[in-house]
Design brief:
This protein is α/β, with parallel strands linked by helices and 245 residues long. It is 31% helix and 24% strand. The chain has helices at 39-44, 61-67, 96-109, 142-152, 172-198, 227-238; strands at residues 8-13, 17-24, 27-28, 32-35, 53-58, 73-75, 85-86, 113-118, 121-127, 132-140, 203-207, 222-223. Strands 1, 2, 3, 4, 5 and 6 form a six-stranded mixed beta sheet that branches. The chain has a six-stranded mixed beta sheet with strand order 7-10-9-8-11-12, with helices on both faces. A hairpin with a 2-residue loop joins β8 and β9 (121-127). The two termini are 20 Å apart. The model is unreliable at 1-5 (pLDDT under 50).
Length: 245
Amino acid sequence: MGLNRQHALLVDIGNSSIEYAIYSNGVIGRSRRFPTAKAQDWLSMDPFAVVDRVLVSSVVPQVDRLLRRYSAVELIDYRTIPYLTINLKKTSQVGSDRIVNALGAFRTHNQSCLVVDSGTATTFCYIDRDGSYEGGIILPGMGISSQALALFTAKIPLIRVSPVTGLVGKTTKEAVQIGLYRGTIHLINGLIEDFRMMDPSVVVVGTGNGLLPVKDQLKLDHYDPILILKGLAVCADATSPSFNT
């Protein structure tokens, strides 16, 4: 049976991958991934053929230019995000991924939230209890930190980070893995504690594949792998009140 016009496609375009899922009648379907570097190949598969609407969060301008050719595509940004107010000096600088994640967390928990998202970069986004997006922190993710060591040193190779229990590395690989793994845990937990001192009632929500190696060691209240898709689903409902009726 073909999909009907109550279906939308939710699309998160990150620096490394495109994640997308069908949204229908309040339910987000199973998500799929495709490399962002092959976005043109993904579009050639005509992923929009079975839907009437496409809600997109994107941080890749080159892909945005391709998407603007499609009338069904709605690119979510600071001008179109519902329910949140953006309290920043330069609202145009905030990434759509950050505010869509913020929306997903705020509408899920209905109180002040801190979203910790890790992919290519690791970001912290704070939303107050009134739904004001106040900004946050951006720093390199573990992957590009490892790449930087390989690129800017003569003898350190590119090393994939995985969970470790030791504290003293006996090889270069062990030393880098310990440094990035344990260093990331302490960095993120330290910043979470700083935010909790600022706002004791804040709910801390983690998301993003970059947190997977360390998430069990983090002081999160929740880990939500599809937080950004939930935010896009809120956008779909908000911009079309009769969408699911």
